[in-house]
Amino acid sequence: MVANHPPPRLLMLSLATSYLVVVNGFLVVAAAEEASSATTSDSVLGIRHKGFRGERELDDCQVSRLNSLEPKNRIQCEAGTIESWDPNEDEFQCVGVAVVRYIIESNGLLLPSYANAPQLIYIVEGGGIQGVVLPGCPETFQSSQQQSQHGGAHEFGEREELGERGAGKGRRRILDQHQKIRNFRQGDILAIPIGASHWVYNDGDRPIVAIVLLDTTNNLNQLDIYPRRFYLAGNPEQEHPSEGERGHHSQRPFSRHGGQGGGGEGEGGAACQNIFCGIDAEFMAEAFGVDLDVATRLQNENDKRNSIVKVEGRLQVLKPPRREREMERGSRRETEWESERYGRRGGYNEEFGSNKGEEEDDEQTENGLEETLCTMRLKENLADPRGADVYTQNVGRINTVNSHNLPILFWLQLSAEHGLLQSDAMMVPHWNMNAHSIIYVIRGRARVQVVDNTGKAVFNEDLQEGRILVVPQSFAVIKRAEREEFEWVSFKTSDNAMINTAAGGNSYIRALPDEVVANAYQISREEARRLKYNRKGTSVFRPRSGKKGFERRAEA
């Protein structure tokens, strides 16, 4: 018998087909693994693809009216006050954030705590020092002294080490060592990563006023979207109490030595509310290597001082100098360092709220070595006029901070804006392209109008000092200062928030052809050109018409 062999061409075609099938299978598997790896990496880095903000109910932002909001809960502490806005308000539910205001008196210490959400803190008034404890980072601040013949002062927790050449050369006594302490001043924006414990101390002569935003719908928050603060010391009240708790403890008296009331469970609440309270004292003693009495003190039972306590004497910690001249020099050095490191990128682009040169920026990929976690900058001054991104003389200015000039905001997926309008000055109509905006009024008063997608004015009122206005993404907004200066800070839910302006230079109207404008608004070509080019300059300006005309149009 003669064997039937397939033709050579058919055999080659069959082999080629099999090869392509196998290679395609390998490519599919590799692509799946790469996608899985990328998703895992992005999750670790905190990049929000579809977190809580994208998974909430579709009608969360169906608001027919916006309101300017004031704090609903007030906690009186031994050395200050904590005021919180109700996170259940429709506006906060829409944008997925919570807001708190701290007032810390001179020599007051905000006890260490951490939260289930990234935080941005704007310093409205005052200055002090802050510690942010980052896990795995070394204690790089250390004080030491050479033991004298008369002996050094003994402090709790100090260690003694022999000199390198023996005890004959004296003993080196390490008094304290801890992680980095940062000075802050009025106008600073402070970034706190999720789960990082931090504390604040007022070493100045006037109170610190700080407004804090918690991004509870951030992808890294895997609890619910309700703000939760976990205290590591004291017996504090919750900043955002539930409906049943609101107002129940708000007037709880404090005493440095537990002078009033027992605060026990029989009085309607636990005797201790920091995280160590639920751990057995014997376990605590073993974990910290201390005796049972010290471990019990960590639980701060019946402590009535609340979360801002008065320091006895002054807080003696190793910290950088705070002399004004040195701070100014440090600010200049920091600006120069950032300029050399990231480049100027061509200046500020008003429409997009970021720097120009995006084409060049896209070509420069990050390798993760530009800035380590332990040395990453956590603050930037947002109110310095020298850093203004938009400026019109005798009219106003706008400063922005985003992931370009404060890289940690890339991981937090947040940014901020500080604005100042002189009397009667205006900011042109604009909308936030990729972020919600949470506006807090620092001082002054302004007429603000906000319009939704149906053309309805959902807010048309005066916005005054101490209040918050939430502007959802894509809603159009316009501001005009009253007889006094209007100053505000806006927190935005994107690390590189972008705006689009309706009038003025680099605006929507300027980018349209004359014929499109004429036909869209049913006006002549000459009127279309005036509409496009009459308003020149930046997005902040002083109107030609009087204030009364604006008020009449607003009322209409």
From TrEMBL:
GO terms for molecular function: nutrient reservoir activity. Residues 358-368 have a biased composition (Acidic residues). Keywords: Disulfide bond, Seed storage protein, Signal, Storage protein. Residues 1-25 form the signal peptide. The keyword Signal applies. Residues 152-172, 237-248, 321-343 have a biased composition (Basic and acidic residues). Residues 64-296, 380-529 form the Cupin type-1 domain. Residues 258-267 have a biased composition (Gly residues). One of its GO terms (biological process) is seed maturation. Residues 141-172, 234-267, 320-368 are annotated as: Disordered. InterPro entries: 11S_seedstore_CS (IPR022379), 11S_seedstore_pln (IPR006044), Cupin_1 (IPR006045), RmlC-like_jellyroll (IPR014710), RmlC_Cupin_sf (IPR011051), Seed_Storage-Functional (IPR050253). SUPFAM superfamilies: RmlC-like cupins. Gene3D superfamilies: Jelly Rolls. Seed storage protein. Hexamer; each subunit is composed of an acidic and a basic chain derived from a single precursor and linked by a disulfide bond. PANTHER family: 12S SEED STORAGE PROTEIN CRB, OS03G0336100 PROTEIN-RELATED. Belongs to the 11S seed storage protein (globulins) family. This is Cupin type-1 domain-containing protein.
